[in-house]
Design a protein that fits this description.
Length: 67
């Protein structure tokens, strides 16, 4: 039972956040919170055995015609 609750909390942490339209609202604002980013990276490493590397380029401009 303890593992089930722990798993449920980790899943919620990976997906709850960024559900608001307003970017300045803490935790649920329209941005990816740091805890959510960290939990998804941890999931990829543990469950999928995929280790993401930190990128030096953080600002990428994509032509709207390509979307």
């Amino acid at each position: 039972m303890i593992q089930t609750v722990e798993s449920l909390l980790r899943t919620a942490e990976a997906f709850l956040g960024g559900i608001s339209d307003h970017p300045l609202v803490p935790i649920i604002g329209s941005h990816v919170p740091e805890y959510m980013e960290a939990e998804n990276i941890t999931f990829l490493a543990e469950a999928m055995e995929y280790v993401m590397e930190k990128r030096e380029i953080t600002d990428v401009h994509i032509d709207e015609d390509l979307i």
